[in-house]
Amino acid sequence: MSKISDKAVISPGAVIGTDAAIGPFSIIQDGVSIGDNAEIHSNVLVHSGTSLARGVKIFHSAVLGAEPQDLKFSGEVTTLEIGENTVVREFATISRGTSARGKTVIGKSCYIMNYVHIPHDSVIGNNIILSNAINMGGHVTVDDWAIIGGMVGVHQFVHIGAHSFIAFGSRVTQDVPPFVLAGGSPIGYKGLNVVGLKRRGFSDEQIRNIKNAYSIIYGTEYNISDAVKAVKDTVEMTDEVKTIISFIEQSERGIIRK
Fold first, then answer.
1. Is 121 labeled as catalytic in the residue annotation?
2. Spatial distance between the Cα atoms of 73 and 232, rounded to a whole number of angstroms
């Protein structure tokens, strides 16, 4: 029995993978690619330029690959890419890119909940959880394994580091470094995401080195540039500490404070 509803509207120019399922009243436009074993529930709109990898699940009334909400957009051909086994829940909206980056990218095994908006030119890594009603500005980058709580607002061009956790209702206006807990108003550093790190197999020694680095960065003795130098001089330069230093040195908006 076919897994594609006869009430779905599918362009002949769309590519549909093996065993993909498409529910009633969904619209799949020309130039869309849907991978094997993907599931598209009812009333989903998938715009041209969208590519869904194997095993992606899209729940009803989501809108994927719509024109960017950017007044500079002038109709250029851009794309949206969603990686394997990512889940997009009801009423989420994800825009394709603009000429600035050319594409919006969502990685593998992400879980994107109801009413999330991911805008143009954003790059969302792998294994990320975006909770209900998160709204982002354009050009946001979220690194692997980050978790963002419900009703969080994220300013355009913000970078959120790997394995970080952002609390419910926060307003993220500066970069959030890797491995940390962040929250409050204004948002600030609240410690390490110890529970998340342990769940992902980080050792006590790795966590201790991360903590040593942040005790200097968020101590009262140094400004950021001096703190980075102090970390390099006094903390064992493990891969995790190198990740922290690289993140801070490349930050364009500056990192959150304590």
1. yes
2. 43
